[in-house]
């Protein structure tokens, strides 16, 4: 599903964000990406979405060579990838349902189909009753649920979550991770970059640890 | 892009425009004023161009030929002079006929002369007024040319003035055009900045550049079209008034009729509006498309 071959990312000023990374993530896997700030976790995610191009090496996502994609092809890659951030990135002037539908609009899904899919994901994240509410009336955990709903409404191959629990209290964090696990069990590959030791240690999933732009550990049922 | 999506993005452009109310109204006012000025310049330009053309038709040199000179050779030589754009021939007989006509009843006077005293004449058209003296001098130097006469020099001067003013109004239009482009770019840039977050999320969820750009293009288009519409209507109104009053104030000024000027100005303003709107807004979003 996702393959990194000897991937280096070196910025024009000489800083190496990633150095000769090799990583394979199979279909349906759940993977924690751990490591201190600046170790390269976010760069790995940005290389998958095509926001950045590798300086060296090759990044394959669903057999597409991301570094070689033309500019007009990248949007089509992104429709197959869901992304969730620490800061939710919801639009304040749109309701919950509209925020989710926003992701389908760009791929020109029919209105009827959009309504059906929005209803479906809202049910999955448990927010059906808040469809018509605006984000600022929601709690942090609820907002993150909306952003996850938006990320998966396109039925992506892979869901990338960059510190999704960074702004949430422990209890809410658990709910979010449980939700990600549910989504994973439905067949979506999930990659979650996190600092949260408790979650990583409790969940016993595959853990890839990074430090200074390198992968330093890759364990099947790992801990932080 | 599907029609449904296009309509939706077009509506979004309208929302954007409305959301800019304060700055938007100011910018729209300035842009509309600029269009009105350009419209007037175009009216002036068209009329001066017309005036210039009718004056230019009077730019003629008459070259009188000495009796017995080789006519064909001279005609060739005159046609080859730089600046000559046309040549007509008035033969001795034709000249006599027209003189007879002019004299009317007194034509019998001519019977007193036993032979035709009038010279063979070539009438030269000159490309530009300022070339007249040169062409005249060159023609006069040819063997077999008796005399060269041409219209008053003041005509040439008037013509140069007309040309200068029409060039100025065109140049003025270009300056205003650039200034307007600048305003459009900056107004839409404000919308773009206000919607940066939306643009970022759209990119994230896989919007194509065309999709992201569309609402801003529509916004620019609305601005351009509105300004063009107002300026066209106002321009037409003013021209109508001018046409009503002009015959009394300036009876000899040959003005172009309204049904020629107004459509031309309207088309020009709308083309300008479309171009400014689309080009200006695409400059504004370009930075956010990568």
Structural commentary:
The complex is a heterodimer of chains A (224) and B (290). Chain A is of the alpha/beta class and 224 residues long. Helix content of chain A is 33%, strand content 27%. Chain A has 7 helices and 10 strands. Chain A has a 6-stranded mixed beta sheet, with helices on both faces. A 4-stranded antiparallel beta sheet of chain A has the order 2-1-4-5, with helices on one face. Chain A is globular, with a radius of gyration of 17 Å. The model of chain A has no long low-confidence stretch (mean pLDDT 93). Chain B has a 4-stranded antiparallel beta sheet with strand order 2-3-1-4. The radius of gyration of chain B is 30 Å and the shape is elongated. Chain B has 290 residues and is α+β, with helices and mostly antiparallel strands. Chain B has helices at residues 3-19, 21-56, 71-80, 92-103, 132-141, 153-194, 196-204, 209-249, 258-286, and strands spanning 60-65, 84-90, 120-126, 145-150. The model of chain B has no long low-confidence stretch (mean pLDDT 85). Helix content of chain B is 71%, strand content 9%. At the A-B interface, helix 2 and helix 3 of A face helix 1 and helix 7 of B.
């Amino acid at each position: 599903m996702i393959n990194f071959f000897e991937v280096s990312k070196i910025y024009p000023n000489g800083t190496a964000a990633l150095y000769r990374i090799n990583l394979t993530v199979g279909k349906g896997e759940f993977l924690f990406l751990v490591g201190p700030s600046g170790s390269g976790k976010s760069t790995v995610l940005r290389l998958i979405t095509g926001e950045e191009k590798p300086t060296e090496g090759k990044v394959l996502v669903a057999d597409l060579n991301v570094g070689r994609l033309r500019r007009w092809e990248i949007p089509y890659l992104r429709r197959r990838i869901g992304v969730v951030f620490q800061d939710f990135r919801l639009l304040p002037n749109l309701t919950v349902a509209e925020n989710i539908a926003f992701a389908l609009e760009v791929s020109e899904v029919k209105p009827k189909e959009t309504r059906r899919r929005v209803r479906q994901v809202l049910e999955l994240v448990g927010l059906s009753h808040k469809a018509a509410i605006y984000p600022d009336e929601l709690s942090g955990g609820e907002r993150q649920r909306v952003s996850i709903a938006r990320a998966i409404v396109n039925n992506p191959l892979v869901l990338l979550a960059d510190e999704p629990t960074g702004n949430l209290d422990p209890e809410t964090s658990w709910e979010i991770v449980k939700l990600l696990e549910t989504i994973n069990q439905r067949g979506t590959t999930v990659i979650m970059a996190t600092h949260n030791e408790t979650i990583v240690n409790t969940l016993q999933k595959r853990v890839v640890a990074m430090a200074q732009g390198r992968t330093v550990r890759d364990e099947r049922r790992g801990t932080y | 892009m599907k029609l449904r999506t296009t309509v939706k993005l077009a509506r979004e452009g309208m929302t954007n425009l409305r959301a800019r109310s304060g700055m938007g109204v100011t910018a729209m006012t300035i842009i509309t004023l600029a269009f009105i000025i350009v419209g007037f310049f175009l009216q002036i330009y068209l009329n001066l161009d017309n005036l210039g053309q009718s004056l230019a038709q009077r730019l003629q040199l008459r070259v009188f030929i000495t009796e017995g000179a080789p006519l064909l050779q001279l005609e060739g030589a005159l046609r080859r002079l730089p600046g000559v754009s046309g040549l007509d021939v008035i033969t001795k007989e034709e000249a006599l006929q027209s003189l007879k006509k002019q004299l009317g009843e007194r034509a019998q006077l001519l019977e007193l002369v036993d032979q035709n005293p009038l010279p063979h004449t070539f009438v030269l058209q000159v490309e530009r007024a300022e070339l007249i003296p040169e062409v005249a001098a060159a023609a006069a130097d040819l063997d077999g040319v008796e005399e060269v006469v041409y219209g008053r020099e003041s005509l040439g001067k008037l013509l140069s003035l007309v040309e200068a003013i029409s060039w100025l109004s065109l140049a003025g239009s270009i300056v205003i055009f650039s200034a307007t482009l600048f305003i459009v770019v900056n107004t839409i840039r404000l919308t773009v900045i206000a919607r940066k977050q939306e643009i970022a999320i759209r990119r994230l969820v896989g919007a194509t550049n065309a999709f992201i750009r569309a609402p801003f293009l529509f916004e620019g288009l609305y601005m351009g079209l509105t300004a063009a519409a107002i300026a066209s209507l106002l321009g037409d109104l003013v021209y109508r008034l001018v046409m009503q009053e002009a015959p009394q104030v300036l009876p000899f000024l040959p003005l172009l009729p309204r049904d020629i000027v107004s459509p031309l100005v309207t088309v020009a303003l709308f083309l300008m509006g479309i171009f400014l709107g689309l080009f200006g807004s695409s400059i504004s979003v370009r930075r956010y498309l990568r």
